[in-house]
Amino acid sequence: MKSIETAYGARAREYTLKLGCVDQMEPCDTALIRSWGARTGGRILDAGCGPGHWTDLLSNEVSEVIGIDVVPEFIRSARQRYPEVQFETMDMERACFPDGSFEGVLAWYSMIHCERASVEAILKQFNRLIRAEGSLLLGFFTGPAWNQFPHAIATAFYWDVEETCNSLSDFGFRVDEVHTRSSQHHRDHAAIVARRVYAEGRLDQRYGASNA
């Protein structure tokens, strides 16, 4: 993650100017995140919050939201722009919150630079952080699984929708909704809403594996 931190840190101001405001986002994405937040309620973690615009949006829908990002430049900017919202510099793979701290986690395109092993570690972490029956909302670019593409800031990976749904099931989540959109001018996009139905400690039991 250090290389990602460095790459985004060097261009944080540019990124925030171009993509750091809800008004610059696709209206359908804004509607989905707002409605998901309202339905989720409780305490929400925006994991990989970047400039903090989605964290601020969610703060209007829930009682408490925390934005975390590994890029200190993003966190400094977010605190200045949204002083009423809590932001912390933190790696989502090692988020230092107690088990079951959140009713929901948003990871909106924040895992696209992660290789498969890191994604699996993060999903395991989300399972730990989300309370029973809590909700996870993922946003990502769709395409052949784990194929790289030349992202403007750092190399990123496509995710396959079906494989991602299977991975979520493996890590204790039930997929409730899948949203996709395409256009001639942009990469294909997808969003998945999933509910935590198995705690980490029950996954072995679910799949019949030994606890030894």
Give a concise summary.
The protein has helices at 2-10, 12-19, 27-40, 53-59, 72-81, 116-129, 161-170, 203-207; strands at 43-47, 64-69, 86-89, 102-108, 130-141, 148-149, 156-157, 173-181, 189-196. The strands form two sheets. Strands 3-2-1-4-5-9-8 form a seven-stranded mixed sheet, with helices on both faces.
Structure write-up:
This protein is of the alpha/beta class and 212 residues long. It has eight helices and nine strands. Strands 3-2-1-4-5-9-8 form a seven-stranded mixed β-sheet, sandwiched between helices. Strand 6 and strand 7 (156-157) form a beta hairpin.
Topology, element by element:
Layout: H1 2-10, H2 12-19, H3 27-40, E1 43-47, H4 53-59, E2 64-69, H5 72-81, E3 86-89, E4 102-108, H6 116-129, E5 130-141, E6 148-149, E7 156-157, H7 161-170, E8 173-181, E9 189-196, H8 203-207
